[in-house]
Amino acid sequence: MKVTLVAHGFPPELTGGTENTTLGLARGLAARGHVVSVIAGSMDWEGGLRVSEAEEVDPASGVRFPVYRIHRNDAYFDHWQKADQPAAGRLFDELLAKLAPDVVHVQHWIRLTNDLVVRAARAGVPAVVTLHDLWTSCLVAFRVRPDLRQFCEARLAPEPCLHCASHVPPRPAWQSPEEGAALVEAFRDAARLELGLARVLIAPSRVHGEASLRWLGLAPEAAAELEVLAPARSASAAAAVTVAVPERVTPETPLVLGSFGHWSELKGTDLLIEALGLTREPARFRLLLAGGAPFPDFAARIEALAAASPADVRPLGGYDREALASHPVAAAMLFVNGSRAHESFGLVVDEALELGAGQVLPDLGALGERAGAVDWALSYKSSNAADLARVLDELADEPARVVALAASARLALESDDRTARALTVDAHVSRTLQLYQSAIDAGPPDRDRIPPLNPAREAARLAEIAAWDLALSTTDPKELGLA
Predict the structure, then answer these.
(1) What pTM, to 2 d.p., does this model score?
(2) Residues 120 and 163 in one domain
(3) Does some domain include residue 424?
């Protein structure tokens, strides 16, 4: 089978859940003898609009496959208004003609263009789509309101989405409300078309997939055709850590909590510290906080919150995901997750589970779905520091419950119980191949459903992009929302 995987980035340049999932899938497919290629976006813009080529090697099998990166050079190409980029689309068309795959698997559109499935369909190639996040239904990508720091359930539409997006710079201050509204509708309609033309639609969790369709205003029956496929993860070779929990939690024998990952408001790092301050006796808790913030201002804010907290909050710095068991954060008796996002799956939960401790997770999205399916996790009301404080107080009052959560976590590991867990790489690849075959059997969409290539529209769109960049360069940064 000839397979082309498409993502917004690819290691080693860009790493993250989607990028690493794409890498693992590509290696797994190549190791089984399939002809694999990758088309990825890039943050490297300085060389101009172009395609670069690299080679990836599967370390296990030694099989090699090509990685093509499409480099854009227009300003702020991650911005929602830059989702439609015909010049990048033409480069994608050329690569498809060169590679001639049997199936295209779209993992993400950002940094590329928002009509990848349409372009594949025009080339006669069926597409599979995986909804890794909420970019298709949210202008700010994560559905956490920047102004309120609360999760948003609104359908994608000019109101309230345009106002919400205006809080994320750069704000196109030169546009009229009518122009902005038309762009929101175009963004939404492009996403609807892409998902509608996909021959197989995958989501890492049921709740994530159904919500993504609902917020795009797609018919409920579309959810019935959704394929749920958990991501793959190669479990850490390190054994789970056994940490003794005190029979009585006091300031002298505190309940040690752990958290690791990027520090950000989206991931709720600040919410964890706030919750500790709301407990009845904050001195009963110690929080081991591994990781760091990509932006210095937020890192300084977390350091200040930690220093001022009535609880014992200890920032530990960075960590190696493959060596968490030897990191000081592994001394945690219980792991807490503060994410405000509607997570699609949350591989950080699997990483924490492998350390052999129970978890406290927000009740939103896949994290809530996963917590409700297992006995090694509890949940609290998402974005609600007071409710998290309530759960922590209850556990500190009854530390035997913390012990029971840890015992359940170790049992899940020892028995290889995959309930609400990531799949093995082998299982993930096997199921994905079945879905590819379904897409190939279905063939490309009927021609009457595929919008024909419109060179005049593409030329007009490229002119709009050039005008956007010019307006950006001549507008006062304060009007753009930039410091």
Answers:
(1) 0.90
(2) yes
(3) no
